[in-house]
Amino acid sequence: MILVTAISVITFAVPPVTSTFDRSADGWTIVDQNCSTYGIVGTGVLTWIATGGNPGGFVRSTDPSSNCYAYAAPTGFLGNRSAYAGGSVCWSIRTNVADWLPGSVFILGSGSLILVADVPQPSTNGWVSYAVPLDASAFKVGSATGAAATPEQLATVLANVTLLRVSAEFGSEAGEETVDLDSVKLSGPCAADLDNSGGVNGADLGILLGDWNTDSLTSDLNCDGIVAGADLGILLGAWGPCL
Fold first, then answer.
1. What's phi and psi for 206, nearest 5 deg?
2. How many angstroms separate the Cα of 14 from the Cα of each of 178, 186, 199?
3. Rounded to whole angstroms, what are the CA distances from 43 to 27, 109, 111?
4. pTM of the predicted model as reported, rounded to 2 decimal places
5. Which CATH code for domain 17-187?
6. Phi/psi of residue 123, nearest 5 degrees
7. Best CA proximity match to 63, nearest among 182, 181, 168
8. ∠ CA 183-227-235 to the nearest 5 degrees?
9. Pick from 115, 145, 120: which is nearest to 131 by CA?
10. Which are the contacts of 202, defined by CB distance < 8 A and separation ≥ 6?
11. What is the 3-state secondary structure (H, E, C) of the chain?
12. Whether the Cβ atoms of residue 81 and residue 70 lie closer than 8 Å to each other
């Protein structure tokens, strides 16, 4: 008689990469981009502000030109991020102008391969939270209206991320919008496994409850600036082993 043993494959959580901006600008910069190809054509001025974010500190920049400017992530978000496939990137943004729809994008790239996720136009003068899943279905190639990205293309980019940008180009006129950024988080596919044990259980629940009503970006699973009931719901929905 041949015995067949089932083997469970457990995906261990990877720690999130975060920028809370509570103490500094954390290495983020402003790039001025070509609106079609996202090639860099200039730079802009970024200012760190200690209070008034979502919550705590945040960074601010005003549109430097008639091109398409964006917040560019520091090296901590770049490199081999294959383990984050199936996870997400989330952030909070605030703008005083929102009348140019093509500016609402998230850009992820490796060399000449650029993947673009179209995101909803933000409302004005209040913090808006976004989350883009690291799934090929969320991305187009080259622009927000390009061909659908394939899983292979996303895997290629995640294996060597050379750029990660959050667009801030929400105005149709040069220099009219001032845009703030806060609470950026790159999460793996089992983000609710807060202690990286390979599953979501009572220990993770304890961590989340310990962070309750704080701005802990690790436990803030939906990136809205506060650990609350929505995050508890996400954790309970993920209960069990990370598969």
1. -60, -40
2. 34, 10, 12
3. 14, 18, 19
4. 0.90
5. 2.60.120.430
6. -75, 170
7. 168
8. 105
9. 120
10. none
11. CCCCCCCCCCCCCCCCEEECCCCCCCCCEEEEECCCCCCEEEECCCEEECCCCCCCCEEEEECCCCCEEEEECCHHHCECCHHHCCCEEEEEEEECCCCCHHHCEEEEEECCEEEEEECCCCCCCCCEEEEEECCHHHCEECCCCCCECCHHHHHHHHHCECEEEEECCCCCCCCCCEEEEEEEEEECCCCCCCCCCCEECHHHHHHHHHCCCCCCCCCCCCCCCCCCHHHHHHHHHCCEECC
12. no
78, 163 contact by CB (below 8 A): yes
C-alpha 43/C-alpha 36 separation (Å) is: 17
And the tokens for 213? 């009503």
Distance between CA atoms of residues 32 and 40, nearest Å: 6
CB atoms < 10 A from the CB of 48, how many? 16
| pLDDT tens profile 128-186 | 999 999 999 999 999 999 999 999 999 999 999 999 999 999 998 888 999 999 999 99
Give me 65's structure tokens. Answer: 């030109």
Tell me the residue type at 42: G
Q: How do residues 78-114 score in pLDDT, each as one tens digit?
A: 999 999 999 999 999 999 999 998 889 999 999 999 9
What are the domain boundaries of the chain? 17-187, 199-241
Residues with Cβ within 8 Å of residue 190, at least 6 apart in sequence: 11, 12, 13, 200, 238, 242
- How far is residue 58's CA from residue 105's CA, in Å, rounded to a whole number? 20
